[in-house]
Write a structure and sequence with these properties.
It is a single chain. This protein has about 450 residues and is of the alpha+beta class. The chain has six helices and 22 strands. Strand 17 and strand 18 form a beta hairpin. Helix 2 packs across helix 5 and helix 4 runs antiparallel to helix 5. The chain starts with a helix and ends in a 12-residue tail after the last strand. The relative contact order is 0.14. Bound molecules: heme C. The site of heme C (HEC) has 21 residues, from helix 4. The site of heme C has 21 residues, from helix 4.
Length: about 450
């Protein structure tokens, strides 16, 4: 009896010893645990040339912010990825696993152990001027844009004329902010002049402050019309920029579009966020030519505000209400979806898009449970998504015009509505932009990872 009691104690002590050893081993280190997580999920924005306000590229600058990092990761504020990963997945999805989040918590609680720093992986390097390599054509501002430090949002229209030797196929267009702290977003289109329609593409103004100017007057001042006063073809949304957005690149030969010999990029518009001090910006557009004409051409379906489908009911959000709106598109031909962009402003609460086939099956597209105005990605599917003819694409947007919505631009809340073409964040928009192609057998298997 006595002997077995002693034995149990020995066993107990032995087990505890093993546990302690185990526990000690499990203290996470920067070298083994944290560096790989941060360099894989954070550094693409948190680098000296990235869009985030500080770098997370070495032990010192990561340790300095360890507590905030623990906070923003456990609350899933960083890395920013609004799309619900339990619904659909996209190229470039950046999310931490629960295990990675726990590791960061443990690392901070146990005193940010460095481990062997000499053995720690190195942060990737990010070149400033392009994510994609050497551009074939670079267009920059003609003049520096001065941004007054009056803490007011500033919107500009800009024109970047170009002339090419011949009609040219473009595979990707990239906007690179010069002053990444100032640039908030860019909506860029391409003006394409038909042969002989426009003699001097360089006349008119290049940059206009558009805060209070009407569209037509603005077009006059920028002088973008054909010589006879009619308007040229506009290729919509050829270059877009939002926080965190990298240019959409598809695998070689999959898509592209033709640039006419004479044309111009048109930012309608570029938005500089409020700044407390005077600053300036010179940004640039990198254009990449395709080696061969892709067999297929992508096109856009724009639903909701400024698009081809109505919003039901019309987008008017009464004060102190949470209200749902729907917009639907009936699809008549088999199509393949490549990229989608949900868009709302500050009253946005949630966003949900899916298709219902004529057989009644649901095809999930995207679900954003908690809308975040600051992160409006263009989401590219990992593989093309086929929407068969006869399907309906349904988009549901919920808007919160109560005082509980911290982003509500009005206190007390006021009626907020869509004003066609208005980009002011205090007006609303409900928009879903889809890049698509006509369906071809096997598209569902085509990977869109660049
Ligand atoms: C897509 C770009 C992007 C990625 C990826 C990203 N961040 Fe950020 N982060 C930002 C930007 C931009 C800010 C500035 C604040 C803002 O706009 O939300 C920021 C802010 C922060 C802040 C400061 C928050 C505060 O309130 O002071 C921390 C800490 C942070 N990020 C940590 C991380 C960590 C850790 C990761 C990876 C796990 C990460 N971020 C991934 C862009 C990014």
């Amino acid at each position: 009896m006595k002997g077995s009691f002693n034995l149990s104690i020995y066993i107990l002590i032995f087990i505890c010893g093993v546990c302690a050893a185990c526990f000690k081993k499990q203290v996470p280190t920067f070298e083994k645990d944290i560096a790989p997580i941060v360099y894989e999920n954070c550094t693409k924005c948190h680098n000296p040339n990235g869009i985030a306000p500080f770098s997370l590229t070495n032990f010192e600058n990561i340790k300095k912010r360890a507590k905030t990092i623990a906070f923003v990761t456990v609350n899933r504020m960083m890395p920013p990825w609004p799309a619900d990963p339990n619904y659909t997945h996209f190229v470039g999805e950046t999310l931490l696993s629960q295990n990675q989040i726990n590791l960061i918590q443990d690392w901070v609680k146990t005193g940010c152990e460095p481990g062997d720093l000499a053995k720690a992986p190195k942060a990737p390097e990010y070149k400033y001027k392009s994510f994609l390599g050497k551009p074939d054509m670079v267009l920059t501002y003609k003049d520096t844009v001065f941004i007054k430090g009056n803490y007011i949002d500033q919107f500009y229209l800009m024109k970047f004329p170009f002339e090419l030797e011949k009609d040219t196929i473009v595979s990707a267009v990239e906007f690179v902010p010069g002053n990444k702290k100032a640039v908030h977003h860019v909506n860029g289109h391409i003006i394409q002049y038909d042969e002989g329609k426009r003699s001097d593409i360089y006349s008119g103004k290049y940059i206009l402050n558009s805060a209070s100017t009407e569209a037509e007057r603005v077009y006059k001042e920028l002088d973008v019309a054909n010589d006879d006063g009619s308007y040229p073809v506009l290729t919509q949304s050829a270059v877009n920029y939002l926080p965190g957005v990298l240019p959409t690149v598809y695998p070689e030969g999959l898509s592209g579009y033709r640039l006419k010999k004479k044309g111009a990029f048109l930012f309608k518009d570029i938005h500089y966020g409020p700044s407390t001090r005077d600053t300036f910006d010179v940004s640039r557009i990198n254009v990449f030519f395709a080696k061969k004409m892709p067999g297929r051409i992508t096109r856009e379906l724009q639903m909701g505000t400024l698009g081809v489908t109505d919003i039901e009911p019309p987008l008017v959000i009464p004060p102190n209400e949470i209200k749902k709106f729907i917009t639907k598109a009936k699809i008549n031909k088999d199509i393949s979806l490549l990229t989608i962009n949900p868009h709302m402003h500050k009253l946005g609460k949630s966003f949900w898009a899916y298709a219902i086939t004529s057989a009644g099956d649901t095809i999930p597209l995207i679900r954003i449970r908690k809308w975040n105005f600051n992160w409006q990605y263009f989401y590219t599917f990992k593989k093309m998504v086929k929407i068969p003819a006869g399907s309906t694409i349904i988009v549901e947007g919920v808007f919160d015009n109560t005082i509980q919505n911290k982003n509500n631009p009005f206190h007390p809340p006021r009626e907020v509505a869509e004003r066609a073409g208005s980009m002011r964040a205090s007006d609303e928009m409900f928009q879903f932009i889809i890049t698509l192609m006509n369906y071809k057998t096997g598209d569902e298997k085509v990977s869109l990872e660049p």
